[in-house]
Write a structure and sequence with these properties.
Chain lengths: 554, 429
Amino acid sequence: MKEEHLFFLLAVIIGLLSGLAVVCFRVAIDWTHLVLLGSRLTPSRTRLLLAPSLGSVGVAFLVLQFFKTVRGSGVNQTKAAVYIYDGYIPFNTVLGKFLTCALAIGSGQSLGPEDPSLQMGAGIASALGRRLQLSREKVRLIAPVGAAAGLAAAFNAPIAATIFVIEEVIGRWSAGVLGAIILSAVSSVVVERLFLGSEPLFRIPTFRLVHPSELAAYAVLGVVGGIASLLFVRIISYLRPQTRKLPSWSAYGLPAVAGLIIGIIGFWFPQVMGAGYEFMDQAMHGQFTWQMLGLLGIFKILATSLSFVSGTPGGMFAPTLFIGAMIGGAVGSVEHLLLPQLSGSAGAYALVGMGTLFAGFLRAPMTSVFMVLEVSGNYSIIIPVIISNTIAYLISRRYQKAALFDLLSRQDGMELPSMEAEREESTLRVEDAMRPMPAVILRGEATIAEVMESIDGSTEAHFLIRHETGGWSVVSQEFLRKYDDSGQEDLPLISVLPSTRLPCLHPDHPLDIALRQIGDRPLLPVVHRADFQRLEGVISLQDILHAYKRSVSR
Amino acid sequence: MCIEGIKNLPAACGHSRNLVSQGENPLICEHCGRAIPPDAAECPRHRIKESPQSWPPDLVLLSTVPIVIVMFVVTGFAAKFYHAQERALGQQWYAQGEKELKNNQSAAAVESIRNALVYSRDNRLYRLRLAESLMAAQRNEEARAYLLNLWEEEPGNASVNLNLAHLAAQRGDFPKALRYYHGAIYGVWESDPQSHRLQTRLDFCRFLLSQAKEKEAQSELIALAANLPEDSPLHPTAGHLFLTVKDFSHALKEFQRGLQRNRTDPFALRGAGDAAFQMKNYREAEHYFDALLRENPQEAEVNQKLQISRLLLTLDPSVAQLSAQERNRRIATLFDRTLSRFIQCAAQRNDIPTKNTATNNTQTLHLTVMKLRFKINEKNLNRHSDLADNTMNLIFQMRTDVASQCGVTTPLDQALALMARKNGGRNGD
C-alpha cells in the first residue's frame, strides 16, 4: 500500500482509537470525581480539604516516579514532539497522562481534560506511526493528526479541533495534512458521540441582535476579556519560574499545598474546582449575580494558576472557557443594569466571553470563533463573538508580545516555532525581488544576424527570447557572438537553442518557488497570469538573494 | 534567531535542547546530532532505522483491527456502566428534589434537581422541574432562562408554554402571556391532555379577567364550556366565571350541568339561583334558593333573595299572562304592603303629618295615600280600570320615598326596586 493511502487509513484508525481513549478518559475523570468528591455539586468541607490535596500528592508521586514526561498541559509537549523529536511521543506518556490527569481533575484541581486529550491522541498516533515504519516526515505529521482527533473528541467539536491544530501546532494548511486531520477528527467525534451522546456542551436561548449598536456592548466585553487574559498570562508566567527555583523535595509539597488552597477556596466557591462545565451552564442561564460571576472569574484564575504552576498535569482550555464565561456573564449583567434595553441575555454574554478569553489568553482567534459555535450549536452569536474576540486578541497581542504557549516553551528551555509569529511574518514574493522588463527581448524566429543587430551596444550578458509558439528561453551574448563569428548569421535563432523552455514565474509567487526553479539558469521570466507571453519582469539568483538579505536587515 | 534566557545553546540553528523540563542534562544523539527524548534509552530514529522490523506494516495495520474492536468493547462496557451510574444518581437526586418540592422546600429542591441534571444533562423533564423549582423559589429570571431553552427545543410543549405564560403574566407582559397561554392550550401534554387543556383554559380565563378583558374571557369560557365533559367537576367553576362576565344564560347552564353531577352542591345551587335571578327567572331562582336553604339554613343572603323572588312571583302585577282579576289582586296587595312599609319608614323618622297638614313631600304623599287607601281594593280595581295605573304610580312614589329616606333594606324594598326597573325605570333607582 502506498504511504499516502496508508496515511489516510491510519488517520481514521487513529481517530477511532483516540475517540475511544477520550471516552474512557472522561469516564475516568467523572468516576474519580464521584469517588473523591461525591455526587453533590457542592461537596462537603471534609472532601474539599482532603480530595484535592491528597489527590495532588498521588499525582506528584505518579509523575515523579513513573511518568516524568506528563507534566504540563500537553499542547507544548506535542509541539516539541513534532519539531524537536520528529513526532516521537512515548506510549508511556499516553498512559501517564490518562492516569495523572484523571486523578488531578477528578480530585478537584482547576484544570481541564482537553489538552491532555490532545496529547494522548498525538501519542497514540505516534506509536502507530512508528510501528508502521512510516517515513520520518510522516511520523512527524502523524502526531498532529492524533492531536486533532484527541481534541475533537474532548470538545465534541471537530472543526474547532482541526483549526486549532493547524493554527497552533502545525501552522500550515497543506491539503494532505488537512485531509488526514479532518478524517481523524471526524472519526473520533463519531466514536465520542456514539458513547457519550451528541448534545452540545452548552445551551443558550437564541440570540437576536435587535440593533447594531448593541455590538458596542460586546466590544466592551472584548476589552475586559483582553485585560483578564493579560492578567492570567502574567500570573502564570511569573509564578512558574518561581516554583521551579524551589528545591526538589518541594515537588510533592507544592502540589499538596496548591490542592489545599484550592480546597479552601472551594469552601466558598466550589465552582472553581475541576473543569467546571456544569457551572458554565448555570452562568449561561443567569443563575449567578454579577458579583458572584466576577468573583468566580477571579478565583478561577487564581486556582488554575496554582494548579498549573505546581506541576500538576492538566489542561488550560476548560479553565479558560470557565473564566471567559464568568467574566462575560458579569460584564453582560452589569451592562444590563446600566442599559436595560439591551436584548442579549446574560447567557449570550457568557458564551461570547468564553470565546473572548480563548482568543486573548490562548491566542487562537480562529479556533475561538469556531469553538464557540460548535460547543453551543448556536450560529446567531457569530458577529458578537468575532468582534469581542478580535478586540481581546489585539489587546493581548499589544501588551503581551509572546503568546502563552511560546512563553511556557521558553521557560522550559525550548524554542518552538511560534505559529502566531509565522502567521504574521510577511511572505516575500517574486515581485519583491524581480527587475523590470529588459530593454531587449529577442524573438525566437529571428535570424542570428537580426538578433545581433538588436543587441548591438547592449551590455547585458543574457537575453530573454520569446517564442511565437509559446514559452521563453534565455541566451547569452557570448553564445550569439560565437554563431555570428562562425558565419551562421542567417540561421534562425530557434534552431540553435535547446528545445526545453524556461519555467515561468508570476509576480505573486512566493520567493521560495523562484529559488527552487532558478537552478543554474541565469534568468527566469516573470509573466502575467492571464497571458504568458506578456513579460512583467525578470529575476535572477542574485536578485533573489538580495531580496532575502533586505528582509533580514529590515 | 536570538533567544533570550536560554543558555548553552549550540551555535547551529535548527537544533534545540530541552534544558529544564525534568532538570536533567539533555542527551544528543551521536549519529544525527538531534536531541534524544527524555525517557528514551536511545535515539528513536536509529532504533526505527536500524533494528529489523519483525512484522510487515500491512500486518501491523491488520493487527490494529482487533485492538480497535477490543477497545470498542471495553469502552462500551465502561460507558454502559458509567451511564447506568449516571442515570441512577440522576434519578436519586431527582426523587429527592421532588420530595423537597412537595414539602415546599423550594431552595433545597433547586439544588437537588441541579445535582440530578449534572448526571442527566439532556433530561427535559429534569430541566422543566428545575425551572418550576426556581419559580417556586421566586427566582423567576433564572427559571425563564431554562424555560426559553426548552421552548426553543419544543415550542409545542404545553407545560413549558404554561410556565412561560405564568412568568409573562407576573411580569405584566400581556402579549407574551397571550401567546404562551395559547401555546399551552393547543400544545402537547405528556399525560391526560384533555384535563390539562381544560385547566389551562380555565387558568387563561382567570388571567384575562384579571386584565379586565371580559369579552376575550367570555369567548374562552364558551370554548371551555363546549369542551367540558358532562361529569366534569369544573362546571360550577365555569359557571361562576360566566357570572363574572355577566353571561347569565351560560352561567345557568353550567350550574345546571354541575347540579346534574351533584344535586346538593351549595356552590352550584347558589350560582344557579343567582344566574336565574339575574335573568329575572324568579320561579327557577326560588327553586334553587329554596333547595340551598334546606341544606344551609344559615345563608342570610340567600334567604333574602328567596324572599325577593317569592315577592316578585306573587306580587308583581306586570308579569305576562296574568288574568285581570289576579292582576288587580296583586296591585291591591302590593299597595297594602307598600303602604305599611311607607308608614313604618315615616314613623321611624317621626315624619307623619299631623292634623292633615304636610310640611314636606313625604307628608304630602302620606296624606294623599291615606285619603285613597280605602278606595284602593280589589273590588274597585276590578270596577275601574284606570285605578290600576294610578295605584301603581302611588306604589312607586311610596317606594321612591322609602328608598331615599330609609334605604333599600327589606326584601319588599328590593322587590319593588326590581319591579320599578322593569317598568322602565318609573320612579326606580
